[in-house]
TrEMBL record:
Domain of life where this protein originates: Bacteria
Family, as annotated: Belongs to the NadD family.
Entry function: Catalyzes the reversible adenylation of nicotinate mononucleotide (NaMN) to nicotinic acid adenine dinucleotide (NaAD).
Chain ranges of the Cytidyltransferase-like domain: 17-197
Protein name: Probable nicotinate-nucleotide adenylyltransferase
Gene name linked to the record: nadD
Pfam families: CTP_transf_like
Amino acid sequence: MPNEHLQAAAKHRLTALFGGTFDPIHYGHLKPVTAMAQEVGLQNVTLLPNHVPPHRPQPEANAQQRLTMVELAIAGNPLFSVDERELHRTTPSYTIDTLIEVRQERGTAAPLAFIIGQDSLLTLHKWHRWEEILHYCHLLVCARPGYSDRLDTPELQNWLEQHRVYDAAQLSQRPHGCIYLADTPLLAISATDIRQRRHQGISCDDLLPRAVQRYIELQGLYR
């Protein structure tokens, strides 16, 4: 039946996860990921706000505020959805734990990717159980201004070259195991800069969606 074919096709369509503290979410998150989706043929990107990020200081905005900002930022955009699971954890948000959970839910055959920035690729070897990540997903890497395109050691660089693919079509043909370095726009926007601007009373126009900016103002965040 045609409906069964559609369901089978959807099951094997590449989807992606994109985690972050999102304190606050901004165009430096949204625009490169949108470009990534167009480049590799993604129809859905699931945003995963972290609760307790293990590698950085704790967020200024609380979990509910950061979730609300994400929801406001993606409202009406069919590319994005949000997954709250990490916000309900009281333990650090380790990517590997989330990937194992999502893989169990979606099955072993579905192509699944995890989106990171070039800065995260350079420090991936410091992540919890980082060697296992490609057992569960592909890595899609957004370019970031000012970061090297080579890893720290010959061993790490060799690992990258072993898993790197240059044809995005391969990402849909395998469930996991590939690394794709995308040609996404370089946007020098960071949540740290936005928070500092807010602390100093400097405008953040054009750095984040207006709905998010209004919410930040209403909540009195980052002052």
